[in-house]
């Protein structure tokens, strides 16, 4: 089955997510350059801290703790030591542009935890064939949000619709590494519905995906008793949504070749329609 990843620094939510079936909890320490890249978009920029690693790790029994650090910089050795020392199981390197950066990061980590390069730049796209050969790279994650920005595209899912992710998936699978990409909305929700994105994960052979903020939509409100679902256990809400994904996954596995292609074409059509609509609404 697919490994589901949830971004949070909230120990209570992390524990609820693990009970619900989330396989990895993601603490996000990346701050360098992120505001400049994404500040104009409706994206969430985390305010996580190193101290959150210990707090989250302490409540987990089975889920792995993934920590995204800053892009390679002078402080990377210290950041790596702190993250490992506080209990990280996996370290993610964002915004790299060359295989040399990944090699340096892997050298600093020194096989103590898993390493996932986050492919989200044009340079990373070009260097993928070299990166997958680096000893110590555990898997690859393709970050669609920054990747589309770095290529000057119009929509986060455009790299999925235009064949870029297909190309990357082929190279990574040939090297024998697992990979994941992008984020996924709840089933039946989102500009690109969660089940269509999940279908592409199956088609391409992906094994992990980040759950979007929609999966946390009612949880914090419920905990504050400010939502219509306030009488429902927050863990139950999350469990229901994850079970819907798992059910969709099981059905998608039964698709024949024609249905797989039809679903792929539907996703590409929705992406094209979104881009065209966005362009028509943009003032000349």
How does this structure look, described?
The chain has one domain: Phosphoenolpyruvate-binding domains (TIM Barrel, Alpha-Beta Barrel). α1 links the parallel β1 and β2. Helix content is 48%, strand content 13%. It has 14 helices and eight strands. The longest helix is centred in the C-terminal third of the chain and has 25 residues. It has an eight-stranded parallel beta barrel, surrounded by seven helices. The radius of gyration is 19 Å and the shape is globular. The chain is of the alpha/beta class and 284 residues long. 39% of the residues are buried.
**Mean of pLDDT:** 91
Broad CATH class = Alpha Beta
What strand line-up does the widest sheet have?
1-2-3-4-5-6-7-8
Structural class: alpha/beta
Query: Over the alpha carbons, how many angstroms does the gyration radius reach?
Result: 19 Å
* Proportion of beta-strand residues: 5-15%
The portion of residues assigned to helices is 40-55%
In one word, what is the shape?
Answer: globular
Task: Give me the CATH architecture, please.
Answer: Alpha-Beta Barrel
Helix tally equals: 14
- Helix-strand topology string: EHEHHEHEHEHHEHHHEHEHHH
Contiguous uncertain segments of 5+ residues: 222-231
Give a quick account of the main beta sheet: strands, pairing sense, barrel closure. 8 strands, parallel, barrel
What fold name stands as the CATH topology? TIM Barrel
What is the terminal-to-terminal distance? 46 Å
CATH superfamily: Phosphoenolpyruvate-binding domains
How many domain units? 1
Could you give the count of β-strands? 8
